Amino acid sequence: MKKEVLEVQSEAIFRMGEFLRSRGFVEILPVIISPLTDPLNHSVYDAKIPYNGGYYSLTKSMIFHKQLALREYPKIFIFSPNVRLETEDKKNSGRHLIEFVQLDLEVKDATREDILDLVEDLIIYTMQKLEEKFGDFIKKQNPNFHVPKKPFERVKFLEAKEKYGNTFEAQLSKEKTDPFFLIDIPIEDREFYDRLSDDGKTLVDMDLIYPYGFGEGMSGGEREYEFDRIVKRMQFKNMNLQDWEWYLEEVKKGIPRSAGCGIGIERFLRFVLNLESVKDARLFAKLPGEIAL
Protein backbone atom coordinates (compact mmCIF):
# COMPACT_ATOMS: atom_id res chain seq x y z
CA MET A 1 0.00 0.00 0.00
CA LYS A 2 1.46 3.33 -1.02
CA LYS A 3 2.02 5.95 1.65
CA GLU A 4 -0.09 8.40 -0.38
CA VAL A 5 -3.01 5.95 -0.57
CA LEU A 6 -2.99 5.68 3.20
CA GLU A 7 -3.03 9.47 3.49
CA VAL A 8 -5.98 9.75 1.10
CA GLN A 9 -7.82 7.04 3.03
CA SER A 10 -7.27 8.84 6.32
CA GLU A 11 -8.48 12.14 4.86
CA ALA A 12 -11.57 10.51 3.32
CA ILE A 13 -12.58 9.02 6.66
CA PHE A 14 -12.02 12.36 8.40
CA ARG A 15 -14.04 14.30 5.83
CA MET A 16 -16.93 11.83 5.83
CA GLY A 17 -17.22 12.13 9.60
CA GLU A 18 -16.87 15.91 9.40
CA PHE A 19 -19.67 16.12 6.84
CA LEU A 20 -22.06 13.96 8.85
CA ARG A 21 -21.40 15.88 12.07
CA SER A 22 -22.20 19.09 10.22
CA ARG A 23 -25.59 17.53 9.37
CA GLY A 24 -26.41 16.72 13.00
CA PHE A 25 -25.16 13.13 13.20
CA VAL A 26 -23.37 11.58 16.16
CA GLU A 27 -20.83 8.78 15.84
CA ILE A 28 -21.40 5.64 17.87
CA LEU A 29 -18.98 2.81 18.61
CA PRO A 30 -19.01 -0.29 16.42
CA VAL A 31 -20.38 -3.65 17.50
CA ILE A 32 -17.90 -6.42 16.74
CA ILE A 33 -19.74 -9.45 18.17
CA SER A 34 -23.43 -10.05 18.78
CA PRO A 35 -25.95 -12.91 19.01
CA LEU A 36 -27.38 -11.62 15.72
CA THR A 37 -26.02 -10.00 12.60
CA ASP A 38 -26.96 -9.38 8.99
CA PRO A 39 -28.11 -12.65 7.33
CA LEU A 40 -27.05 -11.33 3.90
CA ASN A 41 -28.61 -12.53 0.67
CA HIS A 42 -25.68 -14.67 -0.49
CA SER A 43 -23.72 -17.52 1.03
CA VAL A 44 -20.71 -16.88 3.24
CA TYR A 45 -19.00 -19.13 5.75
CA ASP A 46 -20.46 -18.59 9.21
CA ALA A 47 -18.20 -16.82 11.68
CA LYS A 48 -19.25 -17.68 15.23
CA ILE A 49 -17.54 -17.71 18.61
CA PRO A 50 -18.79 -20.20 21.23
CA TYR A 51 -19.20 -18.47 24.58
CA ASN A 52 -20.88 -19.38 27.85
CA GLY A 53 -23.18 -22.00 26.34
CA GLY A 54 -24.16 -19.80 23.41
CA TYR A 55 -22.65 -18.14 20.36
CA TYR A 56 -21.56 -14.71 19.28
CA SER A 57 -21.50 -13.91 15.58
CA LEU A 58 -18.90 -11.63 14.08
CA THR A 59 -20.53 -8.55 12.62
CA LYS A 60 -21.40 -8.80 8.92
CA SER A 61 -23.10 -5.41 9.19
CA MET A 62 -24.65 -3.34 11.97
CA ILE A 63 -28.08 -3.04 10.34
CA PHE A 64 -30.06 -4.17 13.39
CA HIS A 65 -27.97 -2.24 15.89
CA LYS A 66 -28.43 0.89 13.80
CA GLN A 67 -32.19 0.54 14.03
CA LEU A 68 -32.05 0.07 17.79
CA ALA A 69 -29.60 2.95 18.23
CA LEU A 70 -32.19 5.35 16.81
CA ARG A 71 -34.16 4.94 20.02
CA GLU A 72 -31.42 7.03 21.61
CA TYR A 73 -30.52 9.50 18.86
CA PRO A 74 -32.19 10.35 15.52
CA LYS A 75 -29.07 10.46 13.30
CA ILE A 76 -26.17 8.07 13.84
CA PHE A 77 -23.11 6.82 11.98
CA ILE A 78 -20.37 4.27 12.57
CA PHE A 79 -17.16 3.31 10.81
CA SER A 80 -18.05 -0.33 11.25
CA PRO A 81 -15.62 -3.24 10.79
CA ASN A 82 -17.37 -6.09 8.97
CA VAL A 83 -16.29 -9.73 8.69
CA ARG A 84 -17.76 -11.70 5.79
CA LEU A 85 -16.01 -14.98 5.10
CA GLU A 86 -16.67 -14.95 1.36
CA THR A 87 -16.10 -18.01 -0.82
CA GLU A 88 -12.84 -18.33 -2.75
CA ASP A 89 -14.48 -17.66 -6.13
CA LYS A 90 -14.62 -13.96 -5.18
CA LYS A 91 -10.85 -13.78 -4.61
CA ASN A 92 -10.04 -12.10 -7.92
CA SER A 93 -13.12 -9.89 -8.22
CA GLY A 94 -11.20 -6.82 -7.15
CA ARG A 95 -14.20 -5.90 -4.99
CA HIS A 96 -14.20 -8.40 -2.11
CA LEU A 97 -12.36 -8.69 1.18
CA ILE A 98 -13.33 -10.89 4.10
CA GLU A 99 -12.59 -8.01 6.48
CA PHE A 100 -13.55 -4.47 5.49
CA VAL A 101 -14.98 -1.24 6.89
CA GLN A 102 -18.15 0.52 5.89
CA LEU A 103 -19.52 3.87 6.87
CA ASP A 104 -22.89 2.87 8.28
CA LEU A 105 -25.49 5.57 8.83
CA GLU A 106 -29.16 5.59 9.76
CA VAL A 107 -31.75 8.37 10.12
CA LYS A 108 -35.01 8.23 12.07
CA ASP A 109 -38.17 8.97 10.05
CA ALA A 110 -36.16 9.37 6.85
CA THR A 111 -37.18 8.29 3.36
CA ARG A 112 -35.08 6.75 0.63
CA GLU A 113 -35.02 10.11 -1.13
CA ASP A 114 -33.60 11.72 2.00
CA ILE A 115 -30.73 9.21 2.02
CA LEU A 116 -30.12 9.53 -1.73
CA ASP A 117 -29.80 13.29 -1.33
CA LEU A 118 -27.53 12.90 1.71
CA VAL A 119 -25.24 10.40 -0.01
CA GLU A 120 -24.90 12.62 -3.07
CA ASP A 121 -23.80 15.50 -0.86
CA LEU A 122 -21.47 13.25 1.16
CA ILE A 123 -19.72 11.82 -1.91
CA ILE A 124 -19.38 15.23 -3.57
CA TYR A 125 -18.08 16.91 -0.41
CA THR A 126 -15.54 14.16 0.28
CA MET A 127 -14.26 14.06 -3.29
CA GLN A 128 -13.95 17.86 -3.37
CA LYS A 129 -11.88 17.84 -0.18
CA LEU A 130 -9.67 15.02 -1.48
CA GLU A 131 -9.09 16.91 -4.72
CA GLU A 132 -8.15 20.07 -2.81
CA LYS A 133 -5.52 18.27 -0.74
CA PHE A 134 -4.29 15.46 -3.02
CA GLY A 135 -5.36 16.59 -6.49
CA ASP A 136 -2.02 16.00 -8.23
CA PHE A 137 -1.61 12.50 -6.81
CA ILE A 138 -5.23 11.52 -7.43
CA LYS A 139 -5.22 12.67 -11.06
CA LYS A 140 -1.93 10.90 -11.69
CA GLN A 141 -3.47 7.71 -10.32
CA ASN A 142 -6.85 8.28 -11.96
CA PRO A 143 -6.99 10.35 -15.16
CA ASN A 144 -10.81 9.96 -15.13
CA PHE A 145 -11.18 11.58 -11.71
CA HIS A 146 -13.74 14.35 -11.47
CA VAL A 147 -16.21 15.43 -8.82
CA PRO A 148 -19.74 14.39 -9.89
CA LYS A 149 -22.70 16.76 -9.86
CA LYS A 150 -26.18 16.39 -8.39
CA PRO A 151 -28.48 14.71 -8.97
CA PHE A 152 -26.97 11.29 -9.62
CA GLU A 153 -28.90 9.29 -12.19
CA ARG A 154 -31.55 6.87 -10.88
CA VAL A 155 -31.83 3.56 -12.76
CA LYS A 156 -34.67 1.14 -12.03
CA PHE A 157 -33.46 -2.43 -11.56
CA LEU A 158 -36.16 -4.25 -13.53
CA GLU A 159 -36.12 -1.80 -16.42
CA ALA A 160 -32.35 -2.10 -16.74
CA LYS A 161 -32.47 -5.89 -16.53
CA GLU A 162 -35.12 -6.07 -19.24
CA LYS A 163 -33.10 -3.80 -21.52
CA TYR A 164 -29.59 -5.18 -20.96
CA GLY A 165 -30.07 -8.69 -19.54
CA ASN A 166 -28.69 -10.33 -16.38
CA THR A 167 -25.29 -8.61 -16.58
CA PHE A 168 -26.86 -5.15 -16.74
CA GLU A 169 -25.18 -3.85 -13.58
CA ALA A 170 -21.66 -4.63 -14.76
CA GLN A 171 -22.45 -3.33 -18.24
CA LEU A 172 -23.90 -0.05 -17.00
CA SER A 173 -21.01 0.42 -14.57
CA LYS A 174 -18.55 0.12 -17.47
CA GLU A 175 -20.55 2.49 -19.68
CA LYS A 176 -21.19 5.26 -17.16
CA THR A 177 -18.76 8.08 -16.34
CA ASP A 178 -20.51 9.22 -13.14
CA PRO A 179 -21.85 7.37 -10.10
CA PHE A 180 -25.51 6.39 -10.34
CA PHE A 181 -28.15 4.80 -8.13
CA LEU A 182 -29.78 1.47 -8.88
CA ILE A 183 -33.24 1.54 -7.26
CA ASP A 184 -36.32 -0.65 -6.71
CA ILE A 185 -34.49 -3.95 -6.36
CA PRO A 186 -36.72 -7.08 -6.40
CA ILE A 187 -37.72 -8.66 -3.11
CA GLU A 188 -35.95 -11.94 -3.99
CA ASP A 189 -32.59 -10.20 -4.35
CA ARG A 190 -32.40 -8.61 -0.91
CA GLU A 191 -32.65 -9.25 2.80
CA PHE A 192 -35.87 -9.06 4.79
CA TYR A 193 -35.24 -5.71 6.45
CA ASP A 194 -35.44 -3.41 3.42
CA ARG A 195 -38.97 -2.05 3.16
CA LEU A 196 -41.34 -3.62 0.63
CA SER A 197 -42.93 -1.11 -1.74
CA ASP A 198 -46.64 -0.93 -2.46
CA ASP A 199 -46.23 -3.04 -5.61
CA GLY A 200 -45.36 -6.05 -3.43
CA LYS A 201 -42.47 -6.96 -5.73
CA THR A 202 -39.73 -4.39 -5.27
CA LEU A 203 -38.10 -2.71 -2.30
CA VAL A 204 -37.73 0.93 -1.34
CA ASP A 205 -33.97 0.59 -1.57
CA MET A 206 -30.90 1.51 -3.60
CA ASP A 207 -27.32 0.68 -4.51
CA LEU A 208 -24.72 3.27 -5.43
CA ILE A 209 -22.85 2.06 -8.52
CA TYR A 210 -19.47 3.53 -9.39
CA PRO A 211 -18.63 4.16 -13.06
CA TYR A 212 -15.72 2.89 -15.19
CA GLY A 213 -16.50 -0.69 -14.14
CA PHE A 214 -15.88 -0.27 -10.41
CA GLY A 215 -19.36 -1.55 -9.56
CA GLU A 216 -21.44 -1.37 -6.39
CA GLY A 217 -20.11 0.70 -3.51
CA MET A 218 -23.10 1.27 -1.23
CA SER A 219 -26.41 -0.37 -0.34
CA GLY A 220 -29.32 0.96 1.65
CA GLY A 221 -32.95 1.89 1.76
CA GLU A 222 -35.98 2.34 3.94
CA ARG A 223 -36.40 -0.29 6.68
CA GLU A 224 -39.21 -2.51 7.78
CA TYR A 225 -40.13 -1.55 11.34
CA GLU A 226 -43.56 -3.12 11.98
CA PHE A 227 -43.62 -6.53 13.64
CA ASP A 228 -46.17 -8.23 11.36
CA ARG A 229 -44.47 -7.04 8.19
CA ILE A 230 -41.07 -8.17 9.44
CA VAL A 231 -42.37 -11.64 10.32
CA LYS A 232 -44.04 -11.95 6.92
CA ARG A 233 -40.79 -10.97 5.18
CA MET A 234 -38.83 -13.50 7.24
CA GLN A 235 -41.31 -16.21 6.31
CA PHE A 236 -40.96 -15.24 2.65
CA LYS A 237 -37.20 -15.81 3.02
CA ASN A 238 -37.82 -19.18 4.76
CA MET A 239 -36.02 -17.99 7.88
CA ASN A 240 -36.34 -19.80 11.21
CA LEU A 241 -38.07 -17.29 13.49
CA GLN A 242 -36.62 -18.96 16.59
CA ASP A 243 -33.15 -17.95 15.43
CA TRP A 244 -34.27 -14.32 15.49
CA GLU A 245 -35.88 -14.12 18.92
CA TRP A 246 -33.36 -11.48 20.05
CA TYR A 247 -34.39 -9.18 17.23
CA LEU A 248 -38.12 -9.92 17.25
CA GLU A 249 -38.36 -9.19 20.97
CA GLU A 250 -36.81 -5.78 20.35
CA VAL A 251 -39.19 -5.15 17.45
CA LYS A 252 -42.15 -5.91 19.75
CA LYS A 253 -40.89 -3.14 22.05
CA GLY A 254 -40.91 -0.79 19.08
CA ILE A 255 -38.21 0.36 16.69
CA PRO A 256 -38.29 3.66 14.79
CA ARG A 257 -39.16 4.03 11.15
CA SER A 258 -35.90 4.80 9.39
CA ALA A 259 -33.72 4.71 6.30
CA GLY A 260 -29.98 4.42 5.95
CA CYS A 261 -27.08 2.88 4.09
CA GLY A 262 -23.59 1.44 4.30
CA ILE A 263 -20.74 2.81 2.17
CA GLY A 264 -17.67 0.59 1.72
CA ILE A 265 -14.54 2.58 2.53
CA GLU A 266 -12.17 0.35 0.55
CA ARG A 267 -14.44 0.37 -2.51
CA PHE A 268 -14.72 4.14 -2.35
CA LEU A 269 -10.93 4.47 -2.27
CA ARG A 270 -10.57 1.99 -5.12
CA PHE A 271 -12.92 4.11 -7.24
CA VAL A 272 -11.32 7.46 -6.39
CA LEU A 273 -7.75 6.25 -6.89
CA ASN A 274 -8.34 3.83 -9.78
CA LEU A 275 -6.89 0.93 -7.78
CA GLU A 276 -6.76 -2.54 -9.28
CA SER A 277 -8.28 -4.16 -6.18
CA VAL A 278 -9.73 -3.27 -2.79
CA LYS A 279 -6.73 -5.07 -1.32
CA ASP A 280 -4.71 -2.01 -2.37
CA ALA A 281 -6.99 0.25 -0.32
CA ARG A 282 -6.05 -1.00 3.15
CA LEU A 283 -3.21 -2.33 5.21
CA PHE A 284 -3.37 -6.02 6.19
CA ALA A 285 -5.88 -6.88 3.48
CA LYS A 286 -7.50 -10.33 3.59
CA LEU A 287 -8.76 -11.75 0.30
CA PRO A 288 -11.35 -14.55 0.11
CA GLY A 289 -9.74 -17.98 0.19
CA GLU A 290 -6.52 -16.77 1.84
CA ILE A 291 -5.05 -16.67 5.33
CA ALA A 292 -3.19 -13.40 5.77
CA LEU A 293 -1.78 -11.23 8.52
Automatic annotation (TrEMBL):
PROSITE patterns: AA_TRNA_LIGASE_II (PS50862). GO terms for biological process: asparaginyl-tRNA aminoacylation. Gene3D superfamilies: Bira Bifunctional Protein, Domain 2. Residues 75-288 form the Aminoacyl-transfer RNA synthetases class-II family profile domain. InterPro entries: Aa-tRNA-synt_II, aa-tRNA-synth_II, aa-tRNA-synth_II/BPL/LPL. It comes from Caldisericum exile (strain DSM 21853 / NBRC 104410 / AZM16c01). Keywords: Aminoacyl-tRNA synthetase, ATP-binding, Ligase, Nucleotide-binding, Protein biosynthesis. Pfam families: tRNA-synt_2. This is Asparagine synthetase A. PANTHER family: ASPARAGINYL-TRNA SYNTHETASE-RELATED PROTEIN (N-TRUNCATION), ASPARTYL/LYSYL-TRNA SYNTHETASE. One of its GO terms (molecular function) is asparagine-tRNA ligase activity.
